[in-house]
Amino acid sequence: MTAPPNELSVSNLGEPIDFIWRSHKLEDKIEPHGSMYVPISIPGADHTFYMQFDTGAVSTVLYYNPILSINEKYGNIFKIDTIDGKVRAMNAKLKVGTVDVNAKSLGFRGLGNKINWEEDSFVIIGTVGNDFIEKNPLIMDFKNQQITLTNSEDQKVKTENDYLPFTFDGRKIFLNAQLNKRPVELWYDSGSSMFELIVEESTFWDLAAPGAEMESFMISSWGAQVPAHNIKSDGEFQFGSIKIPLTTVTYMEWPNKLQAFVLKAANIGGDLGGMTGNKLFLDKTLILDVPNLRYALKE
């Protein structure tokens, strides 16, 4: 439940950033809201790139081969060095939408593919993590497909009572909510856009609707194929005054992210409901005021 130091500084805040949904295929079904990407511009490069917006990532990272391609074409825009045995991009500058980002250094996660400048129309160069939002409130307007990083508290939330608390342990977002009228903490991971609620196996069966049949499939996560299972549920979330049905619950046979649930429950004593992504909030606005450890969900 720890995170490396935040090496980002951000400026030029307050303008909405249009994000893009990319679909994912689950067996024979297409999920249109598979993952969300924000446009990236790099000083010295006349090209629009993209990075996944992922609140499940504690730090912003780059993909190695696309950065090499950018350096080859535009003349070593990114200064790559090895620090304490780890390859990093030093003093990196980029724009996330209209937000200026300066990073003392950025790490690499995954190789990615070299860029084919003639054929690749949607070039993904990395992931934007929670270091981007740690010092400023964020408005996520899912209905209009926009996010806005702001300098001050969002004026759409009029009173203190509209906010709910959350924790930011290890630069991970745990939302306080209710599930079936019981208090829970939900790890909010926008990189898990396709799923309403991801839980461990015993909770999966507890939340299953009577007589429901399990559906199994494989998903790709950071290059690995992970067995996953869905089952129908008849649960209900409550976020302040807003109620949202839980129609499907998911169990994955890969412990990496679920280990955080165990750590949280064992070491802090919280009631872990599981991990949720964007699917619950697709027609809502989610406001994450990280500096004040509070959030609001609005119709």
Helix and strand arrangement:
Blueprint: E1 8-11, E2 17-18, E3 20-26, E4 29-41, E5 49-53, E6 61-62, H1 64-74, E7 79-83, E8 86-96, E9 99-108, E10 124-128, E11 138-141, E12 146-149, E13 164-167, E14 174-179, E15 182-188, E16 198-199, H2 201-207, E17 215-221, E18 224-239, E19 242-252, H3 258-268, E20 272-276, E21 285-289, E22 294-298
Parallel strand pairs: 5-10, 6-9, 15-20, 16-19
Antiparallel strand pairs: 1-9, 2-12, 3-4, 4-5, 4-8, 6-10, 7-8, 8-9, 11-12, 11-21, 13-14, 13-22, 14-15, 14-18, 17-18, 18-19, 21-22
Task: Characterize the structure shown.
The chain is mainly beta. It folds into two domains: 8-132, Cathepsin D, subunit A, domain 1, CATH 2.40.70; 154-298, Acid Proteases (Cathepsin D, subunit A, domain 1). The protein has helices at residues 64-74, 201-207, 258-268, and strands spanning 8-11, 17-18, 20-26, 29-41, 49-53, 61-62, 79-83, 86-96, 99-108, 124-128, 138-141, 146-149, 164-167, 174-179, 182-188, 198-199, 215-221, 224-239, 242-252, 272-276, 285-289, 294-298. Strands 2, 11, 12, 13, 14, 15, 16, 17, 18, 19, 20, 21 and 22 form a 13-stranded mixed β-sheet that branches. A six-stranded mixed β-barrel has the order 4-5-10-6-9-8. Strand 8 (86-96) and strand 9 form a beta hairpin. The longest helix is centred in the first third of the chain and has 11 residues, at 64-74. It is globular, with a radius of gyration of 19 Å. The two termini are 32 Å apart.
Shape verdict:
globular
Helix-strand pattern = EEEEEEHEEEEEEEEEEHEEEHEEE
Global Rg: 19 Å
Strand content range: over 45%
CATH homologous superfamily (4th level) name of the largest domain:
Acid Proteases
Give the mean pLDDT.
Answer: 89
Determine the N-to-C terminus distance: 32 Å
